[in-house]
Design goal:
Layout (H helix, E strand, L loop, with lengths): L1 H17 L16 E4 L2 E5 L12 H14 L7 H5 L2 H14 L3 E5 L2 H12 L5 E5 L4 H10 L2 E5 L4 H10 L5 E6 L11 H11 L2 E5 L14 H5 L8 E5 L9 E5 L1 H10 L1 H4 L6 H16 L1 H20 L11 E5 L3 H13 L2 E2 L1 E3 L10 E5 L6 H13 L1
Parallel strand pairs: 2-11, 4-5, 4-6, 6-7, 7-8
Antiparallel strand pairs: 1-2, 3-9, 8-9, 10-13, 12-13
Helix pairs in contact: 2-12, 4-12, 5-6, 7-8, 13-15
The structure holds pyridoxal-5'-phosphate.
Length: 386
């Protein structure tokens, strides 16, 4: 039995290898920071989502330790049994205030939040419309919901409006990444909000990569665009990227949050995150608000990288965010370049299908406030050589 299972599975693995799509895990032996220890060698880290350099911050780490002293290491139960602590309540309130929404709800991860929200809000007979290049967790949520699920052309409000007008569902949910995770470009959320208001659809924005980074105080894309709960009724953000801890949240009206508490299966049927993580995230939120220099520095590094990349003729995408993909001609070229960069001491993401559409494999370079100008220049130099 297990032999025949392994044989069948091995065929799939072999196929993936032949397609140059086989994935391997690099073992890191150090904390997340601007440099990582890999195979006994220090490499510059240009592939994390630690945009503000908070994943290994002493203030946050001390709050985490204090949280363990107060609450232990685990929550011990799901939120609806006995796992919901004061630490979780406090953080939810702080996140609601920060995003200018009446309420917020913590989830264990962004993946779980997206699956759980979409499947709780839409079901058979409803329609879910998503941007073509949305994150996998949003697409999976759409499929899980059993609603009629369609994708509209990337950032194309005309295509979206036509699809909404053609739908006779009573409930229509439109879902978009705020900052697209593999491209780094930003969704036209003002226009999307208008289309949704005109067609009586609900808009959900996943601001995983904008939260902490965009907006005057780091409250994300909705802050940058000045969009309240009426325009973006369902806002999702993650805490494992710019915030440097772990987990995610959804913010919106009291009715939305109560609906998720009652119906969101990935919220209900799982152990609540450790309270110490919530305490660490509260400390992180204070730093995100207070330390504007992190966002300023990040912006300068983005401008520096793009100017340098243009000079050496790299094929960049339209992104002004810390996600700076460099398109490659083929997946083999991508892997070769990636290996050469690693040999030169630079770790970047090598992103291939099915994460991105066929023929659009790319180096996914991510910048962080923890980088120095010299590191960015050295990366550009290495890219030029490789
Ligand atoms: C746009 C987007 N949404 C959601 C997620 C999932 O978040 P998490 O890592 O917290 O599960 C990611 C993470 O990679 C993402 O890029």
């Amino acid at each position: 039995m297990s032999n025949s299972m392994d044989r069948l599975l091995q065929e799939d693995l072999d196929k993936r290898r032949l397609q140059h799509l086989y994935r391997t895990r690099v073992r890191v032996d150090s904390a997340c920071s601007d440099q990582l220890s890999v195979d006994g060698k220090l490499v510059h880290n240009f592939c994390s989502n630690d945009y503000l350099g908070l994943a290994n911050n002493t203030v946050i780490a001390n709050a985490f330790k204090k949280g363990i002293d107060d609450y232990g290491t685990g929550s011990g139960a799901s939120h609806l049994i006995s796992g919901h602590s004061k630490a979780h309540c406090d953080l939810e309130q702080q996140l609601a205030e920060f995003t200018g929404r009446p309420k917020a709800l913590l989830f264990s991860s962004g993946y779980m939040a997206n699956m759980g929200v979409i499947a709780a809000l839409a079901g058979r007979g409803d329609t879910v419309l998503e941007d073509y290049v949305n994150h996998a967790s949003l697409l999976d949520g759409g499929l899980l919901s059993r609603a009629k699920f369609q994708r509209y052309k990337h950032k194309n409000c005309i295509d979206l409006e036509a699809k909404l007008n053609a739908s006779c569902s009573a409930r229509k949910l439109v879902v978009t990444d705020g900052v697209f995770s593999m491209d780094g470009d930003v969704a036209p959320v003002v226009e999307l909000a208008n289309v949704c208001q005109n067609t009586n659809a609900w808009l959900m924005v996943d601001d995983a990569h904008g939260f902490g980074v965009l907006g005057n105080t780091g409250a994300g894309l909705v802050e940058e665009l000045g969009l309240g709960v009426d325009q973006v009724p369902i806002l999702m953000g993650t805490l494992g990227k710019a915030f440097g801890t772990y987990g995610a949240f959804v913010a919106g009206t009291e009715t939305l949050i109560e609906t998720l508490v009652q119906f969101s299966r990935s919220y209900i049927y799982t152990t609540a995150p450790p309270p110490a993580v919530a305490i660490a995230t509260s400390a992180s939120l204070e730093l995100v608000k207070k330390e504007q220099w992190r966002r300023d520095k990040l912006k300068q590094l983005i401008v520096r990288f793009r100017a340098g990349a243009e000079q050496i003729g790299l094929s960049l995408m339209h992104s002004n965010t810390p996600i700076q993909p460099v398109l490659m001609e083929s997946d083999t070229q991508l892997l070769e370049t990636n290996n050469k960069l690693l040999e030169c001491g630079f770790m970047v993401g090598a992103i291939r299908p099915p994460t991105v559409p066929k023929g659009t494999g790319r180096l996914r370079i991510t910048l962080s406030a923890s980088h120095s100008e010299q590191q960015v220049d050295a990366l550009l130099d290495a890219l030029d050589r490789c």
